[in-house]
Specification:
Blueprint: H1 2-5, H2 10-22, H3 25-32, H4 36-50, E1 55-57, E2 62-64, H5 66-92, E3 95-101, H6 103-110, H7 114-120, E4 124-130, E5 144-149, E6 157-163, E7 166-170, H8 172-175, E8 192-195, H9 202-210, E9 219-222, H10 225-233, E10 238-242, H11 243-252, E11 256-257, E12 269-274, H12 280-296
Parallel strand pairs: 3-4, 3-5, 8-9, 8-10
Antiparallel strand pairs: 1-2, 5-12, 6-12, 7-10, 7-11
Keywords: DNA-binding, Transcription, Transcription regulation
Protein name: LysR family transcriptional regulator
Family: Belongs to the LysR transcriptional regulatory family.
């Protein structure tokens, strides 16, 4: 304790460490956001306190004296240790949540609402990782997944939080040449825009409900549903519209429904998938997602 009473002022020790590390008063000043003369003043105070010279001052440069060379590693180590401790305290009040989800869901539904979650829970840092594959909580650093489909994620806690309605959609320009068909059977004459999936089901469910056979229809397989939406907007064909994601495009008239009264929903939707023992922040995010989904039904 007695040695600490004779410790030079911390701000002066920081100036000595920076000057010794850079071997430059000017670069130390730039790092510490003070003037070069202030650095020189701090260095002189430490030298007077210790009773030794720490630097050899030359016309255009400085070098460390043996005393300075001996002191520098102690200062660097001490400052690094203090910085590490401060950062640990700073981070201790925060929690990270890694969420695996479809890029299209993030783009068109989650991101426009995410500021509300951040405002409610500023202590949770979100990391969004786009993916469509089945999540393996045992081998992946994922805390919560959002998946699209009809369920069936074994070994997890999975529940649907947002029901999806689907129907064929296209751009008005694509529909203009012959007008928008009103019969589902007319779809077989046009290219269908498909989103890659390990277990595709949208067109199959819709065609079964509509009582039509689309096996002979031309198709264009695209990697991501965001690309499917863009291709439909550009008049490249007919997409299966997920109405929670394309609501703005329908409101603006950028997309139109291809058939009248053709929406299908029932078991299709977005699912919260959690490990058997989820983190607290994952439970918080799952609850918020459910609340937002309920609110979205009244938008």
């Amino acid at each position: 304790m007695s040695t600490r009473r004779h410790l030079p002022v911390l701000s002066s020790l920081r100036a000595v460490e920076a000057a010794g590390r850079h071997l430059s008063f000017s670069r130390a000043a730039q790092e510490l956001l003070i003037t070069q003369s202030a650095v020189s003043h701090h260095v002189r105070k430490v030298e007077e306190d210790l009773g030794v010279s720490l630097f050899v001052r030359q016309a255009r440069s400085i070098t460390l004296t043996p005393y300075g060379a001996k002191l520098l590693p102690y200062l660097s180590q001490a400052l690094d240790l203090m910085a590490k401790g401060a950062e640990e305290i700073r981070r201790s009040g925060r929690r990270t949540l890694r969420v695996s989800l479809l890029a299209s869901f993030a783009t068109h539904w989650l991101i426009p609402r995410l500021a509300r979650f951040t405002e409610l829970h500023p202590d949770i840092d979100l990391i969004l990782e786009p993916s469509t594959r089945t999540v393996d909580f045992g081998s992946e650093q994922i805390d919560l997944a959002i998946r699209y489909g009809r369920g069936g994620w074994g070994g997890t806690q999975a529940r649907k939080f947002l029901t999806e309605s689907i129907s064929p959609v296209c751009s008005p320009s694509f529909a203009k040449p012959g007008g928008i068909p009103v019969e589902p059977k007319d779809l077989s004459k046009y290219p269908l825009l498909l989103s890659f999936s390990n277990a595709p089901f949208e067109w199959q469910i819709w065609s079964e409900r509509a009582g039509v056979d689309l096996n002979a229809a031309r198709s264009l397989m695209l990697h991501d549903y965001n690309i499917v939406i863009q291709a439909a907007l550009d008049g490249q064909g007919i997409a299966m519209g997920r109405h929670n994601l394309i609501a703005d495009h329908l409101r603006r008239g950028a997309l139109v429904e291809f058939c009248n009264d053709s929406r299908v929903s029932e078991e299709i939707g977005y699912w919260i998938v959690l490990p058997e023992h989820p983190k607290h922040q994952a439970k918080v995010f799952a609850h918020w997602l459910t609340t937002e989904a309920i609110a979205s039904m009244h938008e």
